[in-house]
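re: ur question from yesterday

yeah so i grabbed the chain u mentioned. its 102 aa long if i counted rite. heres the sequnce exactly as i have it in my notes:
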Amino acid sequence: MTFNHDIKEGTANFDTPPELVIVVWEDTAALEETWSDKEEAVELEPGIMHSVGWVLTKTPKHLTITSSVEFDGDLVGDVNCIPLGCIKEIKQVPFSDPRNKT
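ran it thru and got these structure tokens back, copy pasting raw so excuse formatting
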């Protein structure tokens, strides 16, 4: 699947705030039971997920985002690395850097 987006390849540095995005992506689905009915398995479908976060890195193969970031340090939390082939859409979200108080 291909899609248009303006996210540049590379790794974010926090001297300037990274891009804040909503990523719509297709996730795998599984049955938790050891043994499952074949009809139930055949009806299984991937889920459409929506993740919000700051872009940490983008490569030709994946996009990594974090939903928690310490702008004046090196800590990040709730990190998701999403294969580009699973991404259906990326929406950029307007964001004002909290360090630029005016």
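noticed a couple things. The CA atoms of residues 2 and 98 lie 34 Å apart. also Helices lie at 38-42.
anyway ttyl
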